[in-house]
Amino acid sequence: MWRETFVGGYPMRLETVEAAPPRRLVRAIADEKGPFAGRWEIDVAPIDTGCRVTIIEYGDVANPFFRFMARLFMNPAMYLEIYLKALAGKFGEPAVIER
User: Fold this and answer.
1) Residue 1 lies in a domain
2) Which residues pair with 37 in a beta bridge?
3) DSSP per residue over 46-68, as a string?
4) How many domains are there within the chain?
5) Run of H or E residues at 69
6) Is 98 inside any structural domain?
7) For residue range 38-54, what is the model confidence (pLDDT) as tens digits?
């Protein structure tokens, strides 16, 4: 478990729930009293041109006001896309994002 501080100074405790390198990684939010909860399941599969990274996000926003505001003003895939673009950039590749 570790704590990360995100843009805007928001700290969050995270934990690795499952790790099966190099194919699977599951990370979860470990803050029990935070405004939201959830996990990312990341799977990597080889393909002819490199690999396919699939991320599934399971999230819960308990506070109805925050849930409403997020639905109204946020792209639900925004953080997944930011992560995938940064990951592809680390390998000098463009991210090809499929929904």
Assistant:
1) no
2) 60
3) EETTEEEEEEEEEEE--SHHHHH
4) 1
5) helix 64-73
6) no
7) 999 999 999 998 899 99
